[in-house]
Amino acid sequence: MGSLIFLLQLAKKHIMHNAGQSLTTVSIIAISGFLLLVLGGYGLNALDEVGESTAWDKGRHLDFLEYNVFLVISNLVIIITVTMYVLLQYIMIKNIARRQREIELFIILGASPLEIIGGFLCEVSLIVIGGLLLGGGAALWCSAIYLDVFVLLSQLLESHYLVTVDISYSLLLVLSVSISITSISILAALIAVKMGVKKSRSIALNCQRL
Length: 210
Description:
Blueprint: H1 2-18, H2 23-53, H3 64-98, H4 100-108, H5 113-156, H6 168-209
Helix pairs in contact: 1-2, 1-3, 2-3, 2-6, 3-5, 3-6, 4-6, 5-6
């Protein structure tokens, strides 16, 4: 979790510098960081419980080496997932700031804020659905890797363990991250449109004065 906190602090510092110290943007990072810590904690606890409860060979638990290898692989997958989510969220928020001019142009051309939000959310929804499908596939694939690793271990250790992994925890983590991405994307879209409306109003007032 230390590396996660470092990434969050780095993203917060960079976004504050590039977004004019936007309190709203920093708040999004802080809230999502808290969600990540909670999700990461639940994920690690769940995987720990899975390792204890569903790994067996005719009623016998895994030995010390096999169980710890299971935990290392499981925790590594969680860390990679959380890190990828932090980077994705950082890119999304930075992209919102870059597309502010595009949003302002749509407003000047006559598009309503609701139309802009709808178009933006359609784009985000496609990204989230694709991410959910890929994430679910990755979770299934990683679970298959768990099985392959333990089959290999059992062959190397000349034991005949067959380890089953409950993938519902992995799918639940992917679903929670997707919901978090969606909610943050909606909030970012609303903020961007609000900024665009303010900017277009100021431009309109300046044009009227001229």
